[in-house]
Amino acid sequence: MAETLGNLAVGFGVALSPPVLFYAFVGCVVGTLVGVLPGVGPLAGISLLLPATFGLDATRAIVMLAGIYYGAMYGGSTTSILMRIPGEAASVMTCIDGYAMARKGRAGAALAIAAVGSYVAGTVSVVALMLLAPPLAAFALRFGPPEYFALLTLGLLVLAYMSSGSMLKALAMAALGLLLGMIGIDQMTGYFRFAYGIVELGDGIGVVPVAVGLFGLAEILATAGQPTPPEIVKPRLRELLPSRQEWRESAWPIGRGTVLGFLIGIVPGSAHIIASFVSYAVERKLAKRPEEFGRGAVAGVAGPESANNSATSGAFVPMLALGVPSGPIPAVMLAALMVHGVSPGPLLVTQQPELFWGFIASMYVGNVVLLILNLPLVGVFVNLLRVPYPILYPSILVFCILGVYAVNSSVVDIWIMLVMGALGYVLRKLDFETAPIVLGVVLAPMLEMALRQSLAMSDGRYAIFVARPISGVLLAGAGALVLLGLRPLVTRTLDWRARLALAAKGEEHP
Amino acid sequence: MLTTDRVAGGALVLLALFTLWESRRLPLGSLRQPGPAGAPVVLALVLLGLGAVLVLTGRRATALAGVGFPEWRHAVAILAVCAFAALALERLGYRATVTLALACLLGVVERKGIVFTAVFSLALALASFLLFDTLLRVPLPRGPLGL
Amino acid sequence: MTLARVCALVPCLLLAAAAAAQEPYPTRPIALVVPFPPGGVADLTARPVAAALEKVLKAPVGVVNKQGAAGAVGMQSVATSRPDGYTLLLALSSISIIPEADKLFGRPPAFTVDQFAPIALISADPTILVVPADKPWKTAKEFIEDAQKRPGQIAFSSSGVYGTLHMAMELLSHAAGIKLRHVPYAGAGPALTAILGGHVDALASGPAVVLPHIKSGKLRPLGGWGDKRVAALPDVPTFAELGYRGAEFYIWAGVFAPTGTPEPVLAKLRDAARAAVEEPAFKAATDKLETPIVFKQGEEFRRFFEADARRLGEGVRRVGKVETQ
After folding, report:
1. Alpha helix locations (H) across chain C?
2. pLDDT tens digit string along A166-219?
3. Class of residue A44 by CB neighbours under 10 A (exposed 0-12, middle 13-18, buried 19+)
4. Closest chain B residue to C19 measured between Cα atoms?
5. Partner A, chain B 22-81, Cβ-Cβ below 8 Å
6. At what angle do helices A389-408 and A42-49 cross, to 10 degrees?
7. What domain range includes position A385?
8. Directed axis angle between helix A328-339 and helix A58-83, to 10°?
9. C32, C64 in Cβ contact below 8 A?
10. How far is CA C162 from CA C71, C159, C168, C304, C314, in A?
11. Which domains does chain C have, with CATH numbers?
12. Rounded to a whole number, what is the distance in Å from the CA of A312 to chain C's nearest CA?
């Protein structure tokens, strides 16, 4: 412990030296700029900006990348809340309640809560990263395909709690999403599935164009042509900050989101988008008034935003402790290290203490810089809502196209966004929710791959799922959840969804 | 009676049937070793079931006639501009494509003044290019003449 | 301005572009397409190459990442681009595997190898065989003998079916007459994570990636696929030394142009590539990556490329379609 603190002091010595601090600041600003682009989150942000850091020395480059990474993450929530355009795929859940808050004039509060939630999650997870990385990393590596399959199954069950409408419709949308996720090369056998000769579909349809299309473009399509533009209550200056009640309601979700996100994040290969979905479901399940979700519940912003942030930090655990590229973001970071002649690996901490602890310290610093940067920006961003919609939406559309294209330099992604936008628009008209589609598209390829890898490992024996302790426990948990879900059928009590439907009917036919 | 749920359910059933038909070309595999068609077929069957239930129970949902599409002209225009952008982006380059797309939306669809349209479109296209391509080195496509 | 007028402008712009082509090469920026995401081996090789080429050719050379479908997306886009020397490709060994796999599945190939004119080979890294340090095999011989006794029982991870790491293992399996169990992962990173987590028993990998884990004692190297031993691992024999012929395999990186690029432009690019690899900045950059420069150009590169493509083509055909009953 004392040793850790001593090392951390060395790290802060590096991170707070003026030139390094300058690069951290530049990284944060640049990351925020790129992160505000629809669809561009931390992964796309650091991949796009990686080349810009090649000219720097190793410590500065890594510190700047850490800044970019946090900046892109903070930037992701802005467009989600203000315009219902997911700033990154993982902000999809923020779109729902964040935008509902904005329509009620609470955009400032939502942005502030998102920033504070990200700050808390970011800082807490760095502390956890620093203190617990070695034991956690050893645990994380025990997650092979069977464990991963069990975890994803658990994630899929969460679906049931995601939607505020009918369970049947939510399941149908999830099935549609899962089926869309089947497009692309089958990674186990190399067959092209449903690609019709379009090579770009080989990797499947990306979650970024799907999320931006189903949420962002669909929103524009549904709003732009309305005779009177959507009424958004323009907030007054003193209403920019969250009220005391909003703070109270978001404190626990931020805490839970942080822990949940971190735990999901350390599992190799897991996507942080799952953390935000799970957090949303958990918050709704625990909420006193679940019917508020979807209509501007502050917990629906606080939880997922924190979970998303700490999940991405959690992904660094195996990278820093063992030098393993356990996810796409750590992989890019490791590549950056290699470019600078630092061989990443288990010996990194002892061989390059300034770099390692400088990186850790600059993650603290980056979070503080971003909080300072973002809170005043809340006022600026909220004023964007004053721009008349007929001028605002063409500009947003351009940024949607730019963001979706930039992630892969692929025009096919723009076409996917277009199709998904049209689909989202029609589904909205037919009163279907689209968030389960996004979850399905993310989960399908991972779930299928994990299942088939497990079977390849065990030579076709399904016993592998229960014989391995972690996956056995997770699957038992999933089974328990299903049983809990079936309970209302047996006891015949109405759950809140049914009550809500009854209440709505009562209003219609008094 | 046609309701929203029934229309959607019907569409899902059709999609599921289409997927099943298209999966015939891929090996199904076995339970011990599922092939490339395994997961799509299972999912299509699930979707088929859910769609069918939606059609059967959808009697009480909102009537399709009750759903208005008053904004369809705008929606089609916006989709057309997106399609133009997808077609033109790598042929005309980012700046030309974005200027044209914005000019089309602002000038033709929203009927803003010609001066405002021209200035705003060009300024946004050039500024975003400068910021992302030139300063942040996110490579954006250039058209003929390096535009 | 009406939509019709806007559309009328488009062809004019295109005509103007065609007129600008008749000047000494290069007059405008060159794009070096990398068909893999930023931060991957190909990308890390391409960036110093681009920087060095820029200095030699005195024209901007930009790296464009066009990833997707294991590289097929970017390779196809270069194969079908205008052969004017302004669109180049930095490809890895997989360029000869993808068309073979397409042929195997009877689908129209995304591209064929004769759509590319080789310019220069930049690096060629032999893969090495690693196993977790807690496994019993101390030498390649022990590993292979055990695999002969238990066909299909020893599992290896790979970067994907028909990927480079899969093909390396396949060439060895064929040469040694063994059968291993293949568990594909979505990329080289996850494949490495899998072996470190003990979920599989073996992995073929480029040396740079696994060296730190060998040094820390987590993985044990058993053999190499090259014709020479890897400099950083002088005690690890090659499979050729051990008598397994025909298993030679390299993860190489080379620069290509679309076929039909005028010969003067190709000649200029070949000279530029030779000058580029001799730039001190380039040498410093590749030293950091621990990838030795192996430079070949012209006829020499063509021979290497063709021999490699033949070996890999046979490998793909031998694997065949993955069996499903």
Report:
1. 3-19, 41-57, 72-79, 94-104, 140-149, 164-176, 188-196, 207-215, 263-278, 280-289, 298-319
2. 788 888 999 999 999 999 888 888 888 888 878 888 888 888 999 999 999 999
3. buried
4. B145
5. 22, 26-27, 30-37, 39-40, 43-44, 46-47, 50-51, 53-54, 57, 61-62, 67, 69-75, 78-79, 81
6. 70
7. 2-508
8. 150
9. yes
10. 12, 9, 10, 20, 12
11. 30-124+250-319 (3.40.190.150), 128-224 (3.40.190.10)
12. 17
Q: Are A302 and A113 in contact (CB under 8 A)?
A: yes
* Residues counted in chain A: 510
Query: Tens digits of per-residue pLDDT, A355-375?
Result: 788 888 888 888 888 888 888
Residue A51 touches partner B, C-beta closer than 8 Å: yes
Which C-chain residues 51-70 have CB contacts (< 8 A) with chain B?
A: 62-64
**Tokens 């129209």 sit on residue:** C108
- Ranges of each domain in chain B: 4-66, 72-146
Residue ranges in chain A whose pLDDT is less than 70: 1, 159-165, 228-238, 270-271, 344, 486-510
Bridge partners (DSSP) listed for residue C87:
C31
Fill in the amino acid letter for A105: G
Closest among C48, C223, C209, C56 to C131, alpha carbons compared: C223
Tell me, yes or no, if B128 comes closer than 8 A to chain A by beta carbon. yes
**Burial class (CB within 10 angstroms; exposed 0-12, middle 13-18, buried 19+) of A409:** buried
Q: For C87-129, what is each residue's pLDDT tens digit?
A: 999 999 889 888 888 888 888 888 888 899 999 998 888 899 9
Yes or no: say if B39 and A194 are a contact pair by the CB < 8 Å rule.
no
Task: List the structure tokens of A341.
Answer: 């002649």
What value of ipTM does the predicted structure carry? 0.94
